[in-house]
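Hey,
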Amino acid sequence: MSSSLRARNTAFRDGSLCKSTGDKNAKTLPDRYKINADFVLGVENAEENSKLVLCKRSTPFRRILWNMDIGSGAITLNSSNGDLAIAPEGHQLRPAVQLLLWTYNFTSARQHWEFDENPGPIVSVVNPQLGITTSASAVGDGTPIG
């Protein structure tokens, strides 16, 4: 539930999870990032107000496939046909806020994200110090994303 300054676990464009600490299953990446390929960015349910969570790669695609629009910065759930996007709970972008699926609003900067590096963290357009991450470096199926 923590959104922190490019914290230890960060979601990447491919939906995989970055981990800055060693992991015997991690892929070789720049020193500051390691990927735990067992988990991806997903949602509890493919519906509005659903929490973003870590999911096993075997999770049904309707909960883990994303459309990432580089031009607008929107990240929408593929199964929603672009209608549901990642947004902070209560539309308040701040540390420790839970991320949810909300109806996509093109004019809401709080629903826009940047992903310049590959691999690299996904950060808020409003405040690049806040990234999509897990709390306390937690990794497991159902771990909240904030």
